[in-house]
Amino acid sequence: MRGKIEIFGVEDIPLIKNGDNIPLIIFNALTKNNISLEDGDVVIIAQTILSKSLGNLRNIGDIVPSQEAIDLHNKMAPLIRKNNLPDKSPELIQAILDESRQVLKAEHVMIVETNHGFICANAGIDKSNVGKGDVISLLPLDSDKEAEKIRISLQNLTKKKIAVVISDSFGRSFRLGAVGVALGVSGISPILDKRGSKDLYGKELQSTIIGQIDNLTSAAQLIMGEADEGLPVVIIRGYEYSLMEKSSITKILRKSEIDLFRKKRKNGNFETILKSRRSYKSEFNDKEVSINLIEDCIDVARWAPSAHNGQFWRYSIIEKGKIRETLIEKMNSKLKEDLIQEGKSDNFVFKKINKTRNQFLNSPYLILLCLDSHDLKTNSDSARDFNEYIMGVQSISASATYLLLAFENKGVSACWYCAPLFAKKIIKEVLKLPSSFVPMAFFTVGYSTKTTQKPYRKELKDIIFKIRKEK
Ligand SMILES: Cc1cc2nc3c(=O)[nH]c(=O)nc-3n(C[C@H](O)[C@H](O)[C@H](O)COP(=O)(O)O)c2cc1C
User: Fold this and answer.
1) What is the domain class of 6-258 according to CATH?
2) Candidate from 115, 274, 278, 279 with most ligand 1 atoms within 8 A of CB, to mutate
3) How many Å apart are CA 356 and CA 393, to the nearest integer?
4) Ligand 1 center to 267 CA (angstroms)
5) 220 Cα to the center of ligand 1, angstroms
6) Looking at ligand 1, which residue's alpha carbon is closest to its atom 6?
7) Ligand 1 proximity of 324 Cβ (cutoff 6 Å)
8) 101: Cβ below 6 Å to ligand 1?
9) Nearest CA to ligand 1 atom 30
């Protein structure tokens, strides 16, 4: 019968512990219930069991709240009480901040943009279904990657081609009630782009994009339940879709530039921009970056402080093309020689060279930062000259930081690379740079296909040393 879909939960999934092998547990539970996976099945897995297996949990008691968390607590507590909602401790608020790039609203609820780019309440932190005590579960760092690992293992175990979705439930603006949403996918596209196909009357669809993955996840949620139903794995059978090797949940995330309800990032406050800047090391999409935008950002970078106001920075904008290819090939030959000399294995060398090639050849723009030693102060004292050189390096680093922040402010992805330090001579020869230039850093610039995780930061208490005045 056309249009029939089956949805069923997998019984006998035990309580999950850190280190558990989720695909094997699913496979064993299926076997116990005499269920065989079929080609095209979509396996929906609740995020909580994945987070538990990955040990992606935190104990509230171990969290030290920052001043920002304490201030937010003081602001929110009366509004929370007024709305009869459970209290949010400063520690919990800190955990939410740690998982977020940006707080969008903090009133009786806290709506944030998570480090993955999801907009949701409390950064998806869950206090339910994680056992006793003050333990909270965090969303997996990279649900796409986890979905892919599970899909490959389940395919190997069952010899069936399937799709895997990591699910959660989010509340919605404008409507009450949480519904299922996908956090990560593998084997299926998150969206179904119907633009260009015909409606019932033969009219071409202009703007219809179906959020197929959230539809499937919501359907699964009917069985999975929120509370103690205990069916964290649900199979959807009979849904017609195209199996695909590479997919990512980022496809479903509306970019802030075209989101009518979110502040454009460039309107974000200064502190938000400072904290949300990240190094984008993944691939870039095809969206063009204008040369004017690059120049505007370098214009910002020239306002950095510099020793003696020496402004030692020189930027070369390297477009895609023959010169860049020659440069990277020559740099890679040197890198290869260096790695072989260090005794690295052939496999290591091969991977490293490929990675460097991808990084530096595929970015829409590659920017080289040099220090112009011509502008350094020189003295008869070599120790003094050395410190002048350091001041030059410090100054161009400040400019580089301004540059990265200017890109962040414009919503452009960039990353700082130290590779030029190891190939100064080659760079100067290929780009025919003046002899006084010292190559210092590369910046890859473009629009990233992926969001990037917030990396670890040392605690404030570990980097501030208070020198108390003597009594
Ligand atoms: C001086 C300097 C050199 C760097 N060189 C590299 C590099 O060669 N390769 C790389 O992947 N990242 C490089 N990075 C980026 C750092 O890995 C990144 O800034 C750090 O992991 C923190 O991440 P965040 O920038 O997203 O906060 C460099 C950063 C700086 C400041």
Assistant:
1) alpha beta
2) 279
3) 24
4) 26
5) 41
6) 417
7) no
8) no
9) 416
- The answer to whether the CB of 278 is under 6 A from ligand 1 is yes
* Secondary-structure class of domain 268-446 per CATH: alpha beta
Distance CA 203, CA 183 (A): 34
Per-residue pLDDT 10s for the chain (471 aa) are 568 999 999 999 999 999 999 999 999 999 999 999 999 999 999 999 999 999 999 999 999 898 889 999 999 999 999 999 998 999 999 999 989 888 899 999 999 999 888 999 999 998 765 556 689 999 998 999 999 999 999 999 999 999 999 999 999 988 999 999 999 999 999 998 877 777 777 777 776 789 999 999 999 999 997 655 579 999 999 999 999 988 999 889 887 767 777 765 544 578 888 988 999 987 888 788 999 999 999 999 999 999 999 999 999 999 999 999 999 999 999 999 999 999 999 999 999 999 999 999 999 999 999 999 999 999 889 999 999 999 999 999 999 999 999 999 888 999 999 999 999 999 999 999 999 999 999 999 999 877 777 788 888 889 999 898 887
Report yes or no on whether pTM surpasses 0.70. Answer: no
**Residue 442: Cβ within 10 Å count:** 25
CB atoms within 10 A of CB 57: 16
Q: CA nearest 310: which of 227, 373, 220, 241?
A: 373
Rounded Cα gap, residues 121 and 453, in angstroms: 18
Cβ of residue 417 lying under 6 Å from some atom of ligand 1: yes
Ligand 1 atom at shortest distance from the alpha carbon of 281: 11
**Tokens describing residue 412:** 């452009």
Cβ–ligand 1 distance for 398 under 6 Å, the answer no
Q: Which residues pair with 102 in a beta bridge?
A: 113
Q: List the domain boundaries for the chain.
A: 6-258, 268-446
Helix or strand (DSSP H, E) at 93: helix 90-98
